[in-house]
Amino acid sequence: MRDLADEPAPKTYTVLTVILMALATLVAVAIGFVSFGLYLPNLMTFSQVLSQDTVDKAALAAFLFLSAGPVIAAAGLILGWISFGLFRAPKTGIRLVFFPPVIWVVAVLAYFALIMSLCDGSFTCGVSL
Question: What is the pTM of this model?
Answer without folding.
Answer: 0.85
